[in-house]
Amino acid sequence: MDIDHHPAGLGQRQYFLNAPFDQIERVAVVDLVARADPNSRFRYIVTPNADHVVRLNREPYLRPYYEDAWLALCDSKPISLFAHARSREMTHVTGSDLTVSLFRTVIQKADRISLIVGNREIGEAVRAGYPGVDFRIHVPPLGLLKNSQAQRDCVEFALREKASFIFIAVGSPQSEKIAHMLSRESSATGIGLCVGASLEFLVGAKKRAPMWMQKLSLEWLYRMITDPKRLWRRYVFGALPLTMLFWREVMGRHSSAKLFRASPHR
Q1: CA pair distance 123, 13, nearest whole angstrom
Q2: I want to staple 203 with a disulfide (CB 3.0 to 4.6 A). Which of 125, 167, 171, 224 is the partner?
Q3: Closest Cα partner for 111 from 101, 100, 102, 99?
Q4: Spatial CB neighbours of 226, under 8 Å, sequence gap ≥ 6
Q5: Pairing assessment for the beta strands 165-169 and 71-72 based on DSSP bridges
Q6: Which pLDDT score is estimated for 20?
Q7: Does the global pTM surpass 0.85?
Q8: When comparing pLDDT for 196 and 257, which is higher?
Q9: DSSP letters for 137-198
Q10: What is the rounded average pLDDT for all residues in the chain?
């Protein structure tokens, strides 16, 4: 499958709270990825959550990283609920669930997979959990967001290894920026996935919320309780801006062209 082609049945890309989201279920995403030619020109998937959306509205220069993605999947239950409250379709596809599905049903032994991760331990844990898969691991230094050479090193690593899949898990917006840089390289191939902490969930380094909390849209609360030092500030100070964005949308203070428009897939 040529992944430059608009995915069949995907429909228009929807904009909500000034961020792009594709309306597609996880099983369909997995099917698209499974049928994609790994030698086709590089394309990438982003999984914007509430934190991403708030940041996008504060820092518009980040917008191309998301708009130029092959797929932009909503990784936020609150955003999905907000959209449904406005009678808008919004599928909810978490990066964690997508990653698990790909490792279970798409990635095969002898496949070459590149991991750009924040620490070596996570990369080695993934390698140990999936023996036979040809993993290539790159760990950039701290301060990646402000280190242009380190970002370039990530791109060169991906270009050199020629993997079928490139999991970029070094935080946001660093991951999305690296994926965007790769998409501008004519020799880049494979599919990139900006999946946050998904690899940590995959290997059990972090635990997901119990299913009952996920169904009640309380996974954010579970994560904050289990990792308060890193996440409390994000959730406490992110909740109000997200609510304000929704309120502005309800009151019609965003233009309809920004909030809900079609965007051609690249």
Answers
A1: 33
A2: 125
A3: 102
A4: 206, 207
A5: unpaired
A6: 95
A7: no
A8: 196
A9: EE-PPS-GGG-HHHHHHHHHHHHHH--SEEEEES-TTHHHHHHHHHHT-TT-BSEEEE-TTH
A10: 84
